[in-house]
């Protein structure tokens, strides 16, 4: 009895995760807007916003409709 094995590889290209740094020089955290004008829109902010806020803020660009399931 002989057996054969096949292997296949799937090459999936994921978008690179963007690392955003605040004015403290550390990775910014991601927040989610709860306002009426920007509901559920995500943004970067200083991770020390509660105690030592450097006032860093940047909107995360919205995903395209085709990539909405793989955006970070």
Automatic annotation (TrEMBL):
Keywords annotated in UniProt: Metal-binding, Zinc, Zinc-finger
InterPro entries of this UniProt entry?
A: Znf_GRF (IPR010666)
Give every GRF-type domain span. 22-63
- Pfam families according to UniProt: Zn_ribbon_GRF
What would be an example GO MF term here? zinc ion binding
User: Which PANTHER family does the entry mention?
Assistant: ZINC ION-BINDING PROTEIN (PTHR33248)
**Name this polypeptide is given:** GRF-type domain-containing protein
Source species of the chain: Salvia divinorum (Maria pastora)
């Amino acid at each position: 009895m002989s057996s054969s094995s096949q292997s296949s590889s799937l090459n999936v290209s994921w978008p690179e995760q963007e690392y955003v740094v605040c004015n403290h020089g550390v990775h910014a955290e991601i927040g989610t807007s709860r306002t009426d004008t920007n509901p559920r829109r995500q943004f970067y902010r200083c991770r020390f916003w509660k105690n030592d806020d450097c006032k860093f803020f940047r909107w995360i660009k919205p995903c395209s409709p085709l990539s909405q399931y793989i955006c970070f």
